Amino acid sequence: MITITKSEVTQIIEKQRNFFASGQTKDVNFRLEQLHKLKQLVTENEQPITQALKADLNKSEFEAYLSEISVVQEINYAIKNVKKWAKPKKADVPLDFFSYSGKIYPEPLGLVLIISPWNYPFSLIISPLVGAIAAGNCAIIKPSELAPHTSSLVAELVPQYFQSEYIAVVEGGVETSQELLAQKFDHIFFTGGTAIGKIVMEAAAKHLTPVTLELGGKSPCIVDTDINLEHTARRITWGKFMNAGQTCIAPDYLLVDQNIKKDLIAALQKTIKELYGENPAQSPDYGRIISHRHFERLTKFLNNGKIIVGGETNYEEKYIAPTILDDVALSDPVMQEEIFGPILPVIEYTDIKDAIALINSQSKPLALYLFTQNQNLQKRILQETSSGGVCLNDTIMQVGVSSLPFGGVGDSGMGNYHGKASFDTFSHYKSVLKNSFWFDLNWRYAPYKDKLSLL
Ligand code: NAD
């Protein structure tokens, strides 16, 4: 990985500013062409992308396809809709504005910075880029240094499809990130942890740059008794243990009705075996922890509560088995910090109001999951809790629907993206009011004497 110098960063920015000023990106046909190129970048390189993800995270080919290459759906959605999104929209004007017309023009912001994390290192850099391109911006993208194979592949591929005056990749770690953040951008789109999100926002504030922060948190998963147990267990196991639990919207912990806890744990144990075999360390479908630092952070959680499923670890391989913890105290670190790994604490409740109170006592999560067929309970949870998004009777799938804006609230982030929301994130909506010269009523001009009575 080549670390970039300050003068190199300034040079790229200057070139991109000039390119943006040429006005080319404002042409919607240009944007469409670039979206097609981005699609080609993904579809023509599925194999090297899959290999890089395998090397970084031991990601299986299937998961790589499902959660990373599938970013093509997002590109297709933008290709289908960008002309419609980019059109000025007529705005209603009040009756007494009869000589006026109002329009809202979406316009690109200019030069945007996209910083992404390592857990879905390909899709989380490409997905926001779709919005940046569709809205007509230039972009600098910085993949995560913790997924070095994917980062260098992105740095190799992007220049084959885009000129750097338009889209440029800057590789590097914290120092590079800070070098970039010191510059003035027209928007910063950051995906990562809450603590770093604060650093990003502080840096952006110096230039009054707007930010979108896609952050993390502890996403609760409530399980009521009114469920299909087998389906519930499978959907939770899949959502929690895919990518070895390193998913921002993975169910962080379970809140289970005590009447179903025993059955649910038995069903989860069975499902883990069905999905990953007797020994998940040998499963071709089970991932690894990204780094030894994260491995050590996670293995400390294994001292909290009682391990009832899994718990095996291998430092060399950065392997942690799919693990379920019982008897966890709310004051334990595993219940205080975002887990972001394959460890699932189970907390039981006897009254749903206690589960709601627990959720509301913590920072607002990115996702909330509820398994129940009871519609009143569904309504109650939606009404009495706040989270970035909610998925009822499933996990993770909400991220795959382009028409649903995706983003956090409170500590889990601000702003959102996917589909039209991505276009909106990278656009400024310019309001334009036009008057005509047919006539000029003089009621608003001085002298105002006696005019107040006309209003
Ligand atoms: P991170 O915040 O450590 O790193 C993200 C990016 O920030 C990387 O590119 C990194 O180089 C950069 N960075 C790190 N330290 C920095 C600093 N001091 N100054 C400037 N830049 C810095 O996050 P991560 O460990 O890569 O990812 C895990 C976190 O991301 C989890 O909290 C997870 O929930 C969250 N996440 C959120 C989403 C979402 O869509 N909301 C998606 C994936 C991950």
Automatic annotation (TrEMBL):
InterPro entries: Ald_DH/histidinol_DH, Ald_DH_C, Ald_DH_CS_CYS, Ald_DH_CS_GLU, Ald_DH_N, Aldehyde_DH_dom, Aldehyde_DH_NAD(P). Gene3D superfamilies: Aldehyde Dehydrogenase, Chain A, domain 1, Aldehyde Dehydrogenase, Chain A, domain 2. Pfam families: Aldedh (PF00171). Keywords: Oxidoreductase. This is Aldehyde dehydrogenase. Residues 4-432 form the Aldehyde dehydrogenase domain. Belongs to the aldehyde dehydrogenase family. Signal peptide: none annotated. It comes from the Bacteria. The active site is at E214.
